[in-house]
Sequence to fold (135 residues):
Amino acid sequence: MRVIVTHLGLWPAERRYQVKKILELLRQTPATERVVVLGDINEWMPLGRPLRWMHALLGRSPAERSFPSRWPLLALDRVWARPRHALLALKAHRSPLAALASDHLPVKAIIATHHAQLAAQLQAVRKSPTVARVA
Fold:
């Protein structure tokens, strides 16, 4: 499994450059290799080019509001998985301590790492009332 963790820049041109580099790396990764891309994408516009490019290659990422941590309005923190169905759940962790720790809420995901685990993990997620399911 390849995991790419990123914190993209604040300027639009910088984000576009950074996402193009990530996409180049992903296109070189064998299609059979599981991939997780996650991090602070810093894309304020829901239809911004960096998000559209990532969605086009990896499928639509769930948009869980995580910024600002005290009153989360924007989904700046994202998780993508390949294959898409391996991303079982995604949720922002909301607590007073999390709001103090950073200007972003932590985002947690459940990702199936093997085909054999997928069914068991999906069943567990469906029973959990505290985890947002991914469609």
